[in-house]
Amino acid sequence: MKLQKLTGWMKRSSASDREINALRWQNWPTISLGGLAGDGPPISHHTVYSCINVIAEGCAMLPFLLYRRQNDSRVIALDHPLHDILQFSPNPHMTAFQYFQLLMFEKLNYGDHFALKVFDDRGRLRELYPIEYSRVLPYWYMEKETGLRRRAYRVSGFSGLQSVFLEDEIFHVQFKPVLSGDNHGLRGASVWQQYQQGTIDSALTAEKFVADGFQNGVNMSGHISVDAPLKAEESDKLREQIKKSYGGRNGAIGVFGYGAKFYAHSQTSKDGQILETRQFDRSVIAGILRVSAHLINDLSKATFSNVEHLDLAHFKHCLLPHLIDLRQTARKDLLAESERSAFEFDHDETVLLRGDQKSFAEVLEKAVQNARMTPNEARKATGLPPKEGGDQLFINSASIPLDVAAKQTAPNQKGPASE
């Protein structure tokens, strides 16, 4: 019942009801997510949204797998509850892709992602429910038993109910933790509000200027000249009359008498370098988030010969750091301490080759010919059923089974020469 009241999610198993103490159930307000400089939040800028969307979808589309270590190898832990949570659905209302896409959106836009962990009767994690960023307030408290400082999370529900959860009940993904002030390490930092507020303010101001220009259309902006001098009262009255007749009216025709002349104050987009400014803002924002320009429809530096290398650079320098951070956070927050030596997280990066069938086929062919994969493993990677005899490893020499090649070589081996 606690989960439903706090987050609005319906649940299929019981949530933990542990609280720290009654004194911490104060009616603290939720966090305000106001925009910057009155021009909207950073994600309202089209380039920011495009870049975050590229990262979020790129990370979410890679299968997030849990492996069990076995001697010097590893196998997918199909029998572990985390396998279904991370691979298919973290809760009854979301797919794994939707959840990880949301996770990356919140991490990059706000600096934090919070999800409530739901356990079964045996204490094993069964579900993850994302919690709205503005409804979570992390803080430090002193643990009485150990005297150590621990992290806790106050969650404000839609109905006004508040509750406190401990570290082992919340899955918390941070982006560049803030290491200053009393909240040392409690929250991640939004790259815009913490480090690049001036950059996003400038970009949002430029977009607002363009939008205002289209909205105003051909509204008159300028000054009026008359032959006879006007007193201050007459000048104010004339200004009010013109503003009342033509202000805010697109396509209005101005009519002036008594020898009055209108001189427009205008600036073309070319003179104002509007296009160049917007292109520069797009390049700077993409650079901050390390997104390759061609992925946000900027093909000025892309060619048919280098686009593949641009994709590779995007994976290595943009997606991979986020994936590594997710793996390490999942190991810390989702695995029990006793499981960490026996299990590990990883992403199936071969999905990135699916769009390039030629390269994908060449990788599988070399893996089979060099005894790195069995033919059936290669067939499974392409969605094909196994074949009889396809579970043996082969080497490149005449493509024969490895054990057969060893038997053929053994009789030809000679011992030390004897007189």
Layout of strands and helices, then pairs:
Layout: H1 2-7, H2 46-60, E1 64-70, E2 73-76, H3 81-87, H4 96-110, E3 112-119, E4 125-131, E5 136-142, E6 149-156, E7 162-166, E8 170-174, H5 191-194, H6 197-216, E9 222-225, H7 232-246, E10 261-264, H8 274-289, H9 307-334, E11 343-347, H10 357-369, H11 375-381, H12 402-409
Antiparallel strand pairs: 1-2, 1-11, 3-4, 3-8, 5-6, 6-7, 9-10
Attribute tags:
flat; 12 helices; 419 residues
Structural write-up:
- With 419 residues, this protein is α+β, with helices and mostly antiparallel strands.
- The chain contains twelve helices and eleven strands.
- It has helices at 2-7, 46-60, 81-87, 96-110, 191-194, 197-216, 232-246, 274-289, 307-334, 357-369, 375-381, 402-409; strands spanning 64-70, 73-76, 112-119, 125-131, 136-142, 149-156, 162-166, 170-174, 222-225, 261-264, 343-347.
- The strands form four sheets. A three-stranded antiparallel β-sheet has the order 2-1-11.
- Helix 2 crosses helix 4, helix 2 runs parallel beside helix 8 (274-289) and helix 6 runs antiparallel to helix 8.
- The chain is flat and about 115 Å long.
